[in-house]
């Protein structure tokens, strides 16, 4: 068949589009080539080329094509929207939001831009704004199940499960087999503690979307929570045989095996997958990170040379090696790995290098790095924790400014009858044998999901009691310091995660911070008997950096636990628990963030 000449541009462009729609991307690229040469400033040609490269997974080439198209047609709402879709897919949520906003300026009410902007703002954790644009999408197309499901999922992320249930149910009345809405409703049932109903909902949803991996994972989690851990593990094992590159499934399976006490085989699925796909960087990263999260840092380090042989040069491996070697005290190896990094600029790299400098007793270097983190990301609690540590090591008076805030640390006694009533319900939610991977507790278990989403009356009453105490605490904080990481964010609070921890004989928390919080907490439900020989056994210690940072700095203070007592403190403040010998220590914890 004779190829049309560039003199037939519409015919060739239509053929290229047909090839693109049929996923014949190499053919589409060949058909676009003469058009690009003959018409280098044709926006439709550049736009289609960008879409071809995006579908082919060549994000850099797609970005260049989108930028070229926008130089020609800067107010084309379809180009702007599709460019936003690319940026959102690569995790550049703020940049994506900007493109969607430009598309809406060019074409007010454009449905795809409204949906894209709502999702990008959600991913950027700007939930109030995200909700506004999702509501605008439902107003623009009130019979769109997609718009209602997006609104419902954003409402769910914002913690308004009642509104989310209404929106998702409305989506299902419009389109009964809409997968996002089915998934969202099943998740809400799970979060409310209705595990049997959640499992039934996930099973129904999977009939509508049998190949949907997220639904498969949701069903497995629901089985786990209904007391069928072995069935849940088997389900994920079967799914991973068909999709060995499914990293999220591997991580979930490793977590389930670990929490069920299978500490010998928790990374077995990753090992099996890597034998079939030895050059898969995502699988290697997941394997090494999972081992490190389980505390097997030496084992992860020993695998780095094997990973390098399979993958070649890798900045990800350099950062992993640097961080792990620093933790084990192999400073020379860590320094060499940090030197191989082309540029230490990402948050994870800056955090790792700051911790390394603290371990090396180089507080000036650590302070410089942590200052950069907190300047660029002023809400980063880990950055402030490390900066405060460096200040304390240097005797810098700014440490006092950071930590000695009147009223920042509180111990409030709430109604003991409320905490006593919740105790047995909380114990029932502790269903694992071991704690989650990469958590601070040792010798205990932690509940899954968002504890305060549960609909049980005892939990609802406990949530109300702690929220009332929280409001009293916030009312006592001083106002007016725009630079302070606690006092600069005095907007109305919302909870950002809640859970229960049950420690038993010899259990404790290692010192840690909550990077995603603003205020952190510990509410004491049941406590072990006092120990006259160890008067602070089980107490909450505040301000002592973790042992692996090797600072020898002492705690800044202690809080004595008591049943019904709620401790509140800044999320950037290192905190941990002194070990105790016998008994049970049952607590509830939650993080607080400003609503906007």
TrEMBL record:
Presence of the UniProt keyword Transport in the record: no
Family annotation (InterPro entries): CHP02466 (IPR012668), OGT (IPR037919), TPR-like_helical_dom_sf (IPR011990), TPR_rpt (IPR019734)
Pfam families documented for this protein: 2OG-FeII_Oxy_5 (PF13759), TPR_16 (PF13432), TPR_19 (PF14559)
The entry's keywords: TPR repeat
TPR repeat feature ranges: 77-110, 145-178
Keyword Membrane: no
Protein name: Tfp pilus assembly protein PilF
């Amino acid at each position: 068949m004779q190829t049309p000449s560039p003199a037939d541009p519409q015919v060739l462009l239509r053929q290229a589009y047909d090839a693109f729609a049929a996923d014949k991307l190499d053919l589409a690229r060949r058909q676009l080539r003469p058009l690009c040469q003959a018409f280098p400033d044709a926006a439709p040609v550049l736009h289609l080329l960008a879409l071809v490269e995006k579908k082919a997974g060549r994000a850099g080439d797609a970005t260049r094509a989108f930028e070229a198209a926008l130089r020609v047609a800067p107010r084309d709402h379809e180009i702007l929207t599709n460019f936003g879709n690319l940026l959102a897919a690569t995790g550049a949520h703020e940049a994506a939001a900007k493109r969607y906003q430009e598309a809406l300026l060019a074409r007010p009410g454009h449905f795809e831009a409204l949906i894209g902007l709502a999702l990008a703002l959600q991913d950027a954790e700007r939930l109030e704004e995200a909700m506004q644009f999702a509501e605008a999408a439902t107003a623009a197309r009130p019979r769109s199940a997609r718009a209602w499901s997006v609104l419902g999922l954003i409402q769910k992320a914002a913690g308004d499960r009642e509104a989310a249930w209404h929106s998702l149910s409305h989506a299902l009345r419009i389109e009964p087999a809409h997968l996002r809405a089915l998934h969202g409703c099943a998740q809400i049932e799970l979060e409310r503690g209705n595990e049997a109903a959640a499992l039934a909902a996930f099973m129904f949803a999977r009939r509508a979307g049998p190949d949907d991996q997220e639904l498969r994972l949701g069903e497995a989690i629901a089985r786990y929570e209904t007391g069928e851990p072995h069935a849940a593990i088997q389900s994920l094992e079967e799914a991973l045989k068909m999709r060995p590159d499914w990293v999220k499934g591997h991580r979930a399976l490793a977590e389930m095996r670990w929490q069920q006490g299978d500490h010998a085989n928790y990374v077995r699925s990753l090992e099996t997958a890597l034998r079939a796909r030895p050059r898969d960087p995502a699988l290697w990263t997941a394997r090494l990170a999972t081992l490190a999260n389980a505390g097997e840092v030496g084992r992860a380090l020993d695998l780095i040379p094997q990973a390098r042989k399979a993958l070649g040069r890798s900045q990800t491996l350099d950062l992993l090696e640097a961080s792990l070697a620093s933790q084990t005290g192999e400073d020379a190896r860590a320094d060499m790995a940090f030197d191989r990094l082309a540029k230490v600029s990402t948050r994870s790299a800056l955090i790792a290098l700051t911790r390394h400098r603290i371990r090396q007793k180089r507080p000036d270097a650590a302070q410089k790095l942590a200052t950069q983190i907190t300047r660029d990301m002023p809400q980063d609690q880990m950055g402030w924790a490390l900066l405060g540590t460096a200040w304390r090591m240097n005797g810098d008076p700014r440490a006092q400014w950071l930590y000695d805030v009147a009223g920042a640390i509180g111990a409030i006694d709430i109604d003991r009858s409320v905490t006593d009533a919740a105790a047995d319900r909380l114990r029932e939610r502790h269903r694992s044998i071991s704690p989650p991977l990469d958590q601070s507790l040792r010798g205990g278990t932690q509940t899954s999901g968002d504890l305060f989403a549960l609909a049980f009356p005892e939990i609802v009453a406990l949530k109300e009691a702690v929220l009332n105490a929280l409001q009293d605490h916030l009312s006592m904080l001083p106002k007016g310091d725009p630079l302070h990481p606690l006092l600069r964010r005095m907007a109305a609070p919302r909870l950002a995660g809640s859970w229960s921890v049950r420690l038993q004989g010899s259990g404790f928390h290692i010192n840690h911070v909550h990077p995603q919080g603003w205020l952190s907490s510990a509410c004491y439900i049941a406590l072990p008997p006092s120990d006259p020989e160890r008067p602070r056994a089980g107490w909450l210690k505040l301000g002592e950096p973790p042992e692996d940072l090797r600072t020898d700095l002492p705690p800044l203070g202690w809080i004595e636990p008591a049943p019904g007592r709620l401790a509140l403190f800044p999320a950037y403040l290192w905190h941990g628990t002194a070990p105790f010998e016998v008994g049970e220590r049952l607590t509830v914890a939650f993080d607080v963030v400003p609503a906007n």
